[in-house]
Structure formats: C-alpha cells, structure tokens
Write a structure and sequence with these properties.
Layout lengths: L1 H9 L13 H9 L28 H9 L2 E5 L1 H5 L6 E8 L15 H25 L6 H18 L9 H12 L12 H31 L1
Helix pairs in contact: 2-3, 5-6, 5-7, 6-7, 7-8
C-alpha cells in the first residue's frame, strides 16, 4: 500500500485520504475478493490477511477500507498483551458478519447467539465502569459497577485468555460464558429471555456456587490440618 501511494504520487495523480489514491479501495478488493468459493468447483480459498495499523489508528485508510471489504476482523490489544492475556483479542471492535448464519440450533447450540450478545454487552459495560473508576476511583463505584469490574477480570483471564495448547470446544466455551455471567445479577442480563436464563444461567450459577463452597471447605480442611 505504501508503494502504491508513492507510485501514485510519482505519476501526479490526485491524492485521496492521507495521500493514497482514490482507487485504493478497488485495489484492496481485488486482493481480498480472491477468497471464497468458485462456482462448480470443490473447496474454497480462505485468506487471513494481517495488518499493522500505523499508531494503532483503526481509521487509517488501509485498515478502514479492509473492514468494509472483508467479512470479519480480529483486532488485537496491546494492553491485554502487556497483561499476559493470550491471544490478546480486543473483543468489542472484533466482529464476524457471517457468524449469525452458522450458529444456533442445528449448528452449535440454541443459546449461542444469546450468550454471545450478553457477553458482548456486559463487557461493554466493563469498559464504561473502568473509565468511571479511572476518574472517581474503584472504591467509589456502585455495587453493580464493582461487579462489572470483577466480571471483566474473569472474562479476560478465563474466556479471552487461552493457553497455546488449550483446546476448548464451542460447548465448553458457551458453558464457561454462562458461568462468567453468573458473576452478575440476573437483572443485568437484558439480552437474554427468561426461558434461556432459567435453562442455562441458573444451573451455571449453582455450579459456580458449588465450586466456591467446595474451595472454601478445602481451605478450612487444609488450615485445620
């Protein structure tokens, strides 16, 4: 892309954003759209382009146009990487436009969309709570905001973080998602209907409470020994 900008400039073409030529979009599309399925042929072509954003600027023309053309993006976060989270996926700006067509009953599990939406919404509130805490201090947060802070730490360390050799199935990830959501009051889970909460949230909450009680009992036994 840098070579294209320099070549365009040397030809005296009218520059667009940040000096890139106006046809940057079509040139990128001609590369990315080579991926897909060829009619009448077996198999498919998948691309995993890796972009570095100048100064981490997602509005830079190359990542910005790439986002319009491709069907999904995974954005990495320096802060998560610095805190030891692997892979350091920044959940909120990452997306898949094809996910909705391959999840749910008959594909993965009926609660996939619901738990995904709720985790996304809850993590968004985590970011809001952290921003507020940076201004007034975490001790001044409301009880609910403090629960979101705790949820955020669990979400990053247990859900986003996966060891290099970890092999977690989709079903295990969904169950883990519900167990993490159990850290929040049921009234906060407004992206899931009551039937789904009864079926998945309540059992997950009981599993978490049972493990916590067992851990407490083990600590008492160890202390007495």
């Amino acid at each position: 892309c840098e070579a294209l900008r320099e070549f365009s400039s040397s030809k005296g073409e009218i520059p667009g954003r940040k000096g890139y030529p106006g046809y940057l979009y079509s040139d990128l599309a001609s590369i990315y759209e080579r991926a897909g399925i060829v009619a009448g042929k077996n198999g498919s072509v998948t691309q995993l382009p890796i972009l570095t954003m100048p100064n981490d600027d997602v509005t830079h023309p190359v990542p910005d146009l790439t986002g319009y053309i491709t069907e999904g993006q995974i954005q990495l976060d320096r802060g998560l990487d610095a805190s030891g989270i692997y892979p350091p996926v920044s959940v909120l700006p990452s997306l898949s436009r094809l996910m909705k067509d391959g999840i749910g009953k008959g594909f993965t599990r009926e609660d996939h969309s619901a738990v995904s939406n709720q985790l996304f919404a809850a993590y968004s509130k985590v970011m809001d709570a952290r921003s507020l805490a940076s201004v007034i201090g975490e001790e001044e947060l409301s009880p609910v905001d403090k629960k979101y802070i705790a949820f955020g730490k669990l979400f990053e360390s247990k859900f986003v973080n996966q060891g290099f050799n970890d092999n977690r199935s989709i079903e295990q990830s969904l169950d883990l998602g519900w167990e993490l959501l159990a850290a929040l009051p049921r009234s906060e889970l407004d992206r899931v209907d009551d039937d789904m909460l009864d079926k998945y949230y309540e059992p997950a909450k009981k599993r978490v409470e049972s493990r916590e009680n067992q851990n407490t009992a083990d600590k008492i036994t160890a202390a007495e020994a």
